[in-house]
Amino acid sequence: MDRLTEYQKAITEALTEVSQNLNYSAVEALLSIDHTHGQYILIADGWEGSKRHYSTLAHIELKNNAEVWLRCDNTDLEIGQMLILRGIAPKDIVPAFYSPAMREYALQKVC
Question: Are 21 and 102 in contact (CB under 8 A)?
Fold first, then answer.
C-alpha cells in the first residue's frame, strides 16, 4: 500500500472513531470523506431545545505529496496524536490552524 492510501485509511479511521464518540442527545456528528480531493470534514449538527448546534469539529486535508494538513481541530481529542498512532509520520503533519511562523512550535503541542 502506498503512503497516500495508508494516510487516507488512517485519517478515515481516526475521524470515524471521533464521530462515533461525539454523538450525543439530538446533536449528531456528520463525517464527510472525499478521497479524490483529499478532504475529510467532521461537522456537528442538531438541536437542543430551541438552540441550534452547527459547527466544524475537524477538517483535514491530505495533499498529493502526502502532507496531512490539520486545518481545524475543535475537539479535545488530540486528532494529531491519533493520526500519529495510526502511522502518519509527525513530519508529514502540518498544524494549518496556526500561522506559518508558529507551526514549528505548535507541532510539538499538536503531535
Answer: no
Residue type for 70, please?
A: L
Give 31-40 pLDDT, tens digit per residue. Answer: 999 999 999 9
C-alpha cell at 13: 479511521
Grouping H, G, I as helix, E, B as strand and the rest as coil, residue 11 is: helix
- Say which residues have a Cβ less than 8 Å from residue 108's Cβ, sequence separation at least 6: none
What is the residue extent of each domain of the chain? 3-110
pLDDT digits (tens, 9 = 90+) for 83-100: 999 999 999 999 998 888
* CATH code of the domain occupying 3-110: 3.30.310.110
Write out the E strands in 5-107: 27-34, 39-48, 51-62, 68-73, 93-94
